[in-house]
Design brief:
With about 180 residues, the chain is an alpha+beta fold. It has 2 domains: about 70 residues, no CATH class; about 80 residues, Glutaredoxin. It contains 8 helices and 4 strands, in the order ααααβααβββαα. Strands 2-1-3-4 form a 4-stranded mixed β-sheet, covered by helices on one side. β3 and β4 form a beta hairpin. α1 packs across α2, α3 packs across α4 and α6 packs across α7. The longest helix is centred in the N-terminal third of the chain and has 29 residues. It binds FE2/S2 (inorganic) cluster (FES). The site of FE2/S2 (inorganic) cluster has 11 residues, from α5.
Length: about 180
């Protein structure tokens, strides 16, 4: 019984995958699987899924008979293609000198710990992305960070967490609440 369930799960996963790839198949058919249509098909995929993951890039490489390195190269060369899901909220912590001396590293560490998030990455639900910068040009307000268009200044680690949680709660649905 357990074996059958495992097989059924695999079939469901494969059929999910085929369904997911349907818009790409259509785009490939439209361009008659021409190798020089790679950018056009990548555009379709980016528009459909919001980003290009490994499965999509490998599939295109296979279907267009192009080396994976070429497909990855094109996808990473143009900045209108993204390889990761875009987050709903992006938090940028300043690690410039003025902010750094005022404890910015502790703020960053607290954010990483609280949201189980590495700098440069996005939370699994796609709600929050964490980045750093080298100076916002407002050093008298250090330490500071931004969340989307909001600027938060003279922060403590606790105040930063509170501010991010509030922003996530205000921005979304129940899922955002879970991540917050
Ligand atoms: S060092 Fe952070 S704003 Fe300048």
């Amino acid at each position: 019984m357990g074996v059958n369930t495992g097989v059924a799960d695999k079939i469901a996963t494969a059929s999910d995958l085929l369904e997911k790839l349907q818009p790409i198949d259509e785009a490939l058919r439209k361009c008659r699987y021409q190798q020089d249509a790679l950018i056009e098909v990548l555009h379709t995929a980016q528009k459909t899924y919001g980003y290009l993951d490994e499965v999509i890039l490998d599939y295109l490489s296979l279907q267009l008979r192009l080396p994976p390195s070429l497909v990855y190269g094109v996808a990473t060369f143009y900045n209108f293609f993204t390889l990761e899901p875009q987050a709903e909220q992006t938090c940028v912590v300043c690690l410039g000198t003025a902010c750094y001396i005022k404890n910015a590293a502790a703020i960053l560490a607290q954010i990483e710990k609280t949201f189980s998030l590495e700098t440069g990455k996005t939370t699994s639900g796609g709600k929050l992305r964490l980045l750093t910068t080298r100076c916002f040009g407002s050093c008298s307000l250090a330490p500071m960070l931004t969340i989307e268009d909001e600027v938060m200044t003279k922060l403590t680690p606790e105040a930063a967490i509170e501010a991010i949680r509030t922003k996530l709660l205000l921005s979304g649905d129940g899922k955002a609440r879970e991540e917050a």
